[in-house]
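Check out a protein:
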Amino acid sequence: MQQANLEQARITKSESSRWIKIWRHIKRDRQLLILFIPCIIFYILFRYGPLYGMIIAFKDYNVFRGILDSNWVGLKHFRNFFDSADFWLLFKNTILLGFYSLLWGFPFPIIFAILLNEVRFIKFKKTVQTLSYLPAFLSVVIISSMVIDFLSPNRGLINQFIAWIGFEKIYFLIAPEWFRTIYVASDIWATMGYAAIIYLAAIAGINPTLYEAARVDGCRRWHMMRYITLPSLMPTILIMFIINAGNMFRIGYEKILLLYNPMTYEVADVFSTYVYRKGLLETNYSYASAVGIFEAVIALIMLALTNVISRKMGGRSIW
């Protein structure tokens, strides 16, 4: 009995010391925690709060009756979506756009950061870096308008150049075979410089003595890039790859809505644009919510799968 009391007292003391330690950490970092409060409020209000509305995907939602009083229909909207003729077209377009964006868009910031790091003329380096991430501060509307102007068959710079070298002008924006190329290329141009900042920061953290030792051994800059810079970047590359692969299935609707037209629907229509049409234009909120939940579930599966593959291949993962 006495031993049990001693054991209980020891556990109580251990828990008390743990709470004292937590309180000390809170007191020490109180200013940072206060600064973090708006972030917590934002996620509660705009990320976790709206999750309550997901239940309309399982109901025949009626605006006048409200979410709770609408009739429960179970998986009806999911079955209707899977049986519709649009499902496989949307699935194919979303997968292809996401895959091409990952295949071509992911390596560009890495290559750009490595090459920019090798520039020794500081003024030129800073100028190029500044110009490269300026598009990240432009809205999707402005970027899409610039793309439309550049590709215009009448006054677009690209078509003027094509005509100048003696070829026929191309109507890029109404040609289905060009839409994915335009989407991916414009995305690379808009995000490459900004994404490269992460890799430039990782390169700045590489121990300079590694380069000095390689230089003493007679290594050329190409060999230092290959055997020092790139391997040192691999942890960052793997983490960024997991994040990008997880988002491969979640393609924003904004730029597609601004660039596509009835001539390119067959290659441009994706889940997000379909949700926009069904939910906001046709006011079929329950059906649109079901499509959105399906898209989110597939994105979560992609993220988890990529995370597992990365952990097994490179030993790096998000969790």
In short: Residues 2-70 form one domain. The longest helix spans residues 285-314. The beta strands are 59-62, 70-72.
